[in-house]
Amino acid sequence: MVPCPQCGTLSEWRPENRWRPFCSERCKLIDLGCWADETYRVPEQEPDQGALPDLPVR
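Structure (tokenized):
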């Protein structure tokens, strides 16, 4: 059993659960919508200030 990432309801992690790790299609679509409207974002890693700049390839 794993908690649904959207609502927290426990659901079985089995091949028969076609929406895993979500509990339902509704929760899966809500999550997809959050990515689509940029509510969720992958954090951008700040460049190392001590790193050398990229040099052009010759």
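The radius of gyration is 19 Å. Helices lie at 25-36.
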